TrEMBL record:
Protein name: KHG/KDPG aldolase
Subunit structure comment from the entry: Homotrimer.
Keyword presence, Lyase: yes
Pfam families documented for this protein: Aldolase
Family of this protein: Belongs to the KHG/KDPG aldolase family.
Keyword ATP-binding: no
Keyword terms of this UniProt record: Carbohydrate metabolism, Lyase
Source organism (scientific name): Halomonas elongata
GO MF terms, alphabetically ordered: lyase activity
Pathway(s) annotated for this protein in UniProt: Carbohydrate acid metabolism
Length: 171
């Protein structure tokens, strides 16, 4: 599963190319901020979209779209709004700045059925702490694609980081 974030001008084209080269891969678009960006993700064939936070307009678009959304939340109030729209799985962002593992443990009290993908401050050093929680389904982190390696085109090192993470976190 890959997430291409809309932080660069080439993100949509990169998603389209990845889908062509690896049709078996599940490729989503992240950092979706508006329904217009959501529609662009649909048009390039994204398998899912991820938002850092979620507006009512995004929820309304998401419930009618064939492309599933992982809505971003940081508080119980935001979680409850998503719950009203029928969502049960959420991105928890920014995880570390929003209370991290302690916050997710607290979220499990009032809404134990909710599941999370924490991102933002997740690293090889703390990922296991998150993955040990019953309400965490996966973690995300940019440690797999450090900017210096991407800028240098060091795809072998990035591949090795991905292999290491897959071996370490495969359950």
């Amino acid at each position: 599963m890959l997430e291409v974030t809309l932080r660069t001008d080439c993100a949509l084209e990169a998603t389209r190319r990845i889908k062509e080269a690896l049709p078996q891969a599940s490729v989503g678009i992240g950092t979706v901020l508006t329904p217009a960006q959501y529609r662009q993700a649909e048009q390039v064939g994204a398998d899912f979209v991820v938002t850092p936070g979620t507006t009512e307009a995004l929820y309304r678009h998401g419930v009618s779209s064939p492309v599933p959304m992982l809505p971003g939340v940081a508080t119980v109030s935001e979680l409850m709004i998503g719950w009203q729209f029928g969502y049960r799985r959420f991105k928890f962002f920014p995880a570390e700045a929003s209370g991290g593992v302690k916050a997710l443990k607290a979220f499990a009290g009032p809404i134990p059925e909710a599941r999370f993908c924490p991102t933002g401050g997740i690293s090889l050093d703390n990922a296991d702490d998150y993955l040990a929680l019953n309400n965490v389904m996966c973690v995300g982190g940019s440690w797999l694609t450090p900017t210096p390696l991407v800028e240098a085109g060091d795809w072998n090192s990035i591949r090795e980081l991905a292999k290491e993470a897959a071996q370490r976190f495969h359950h």
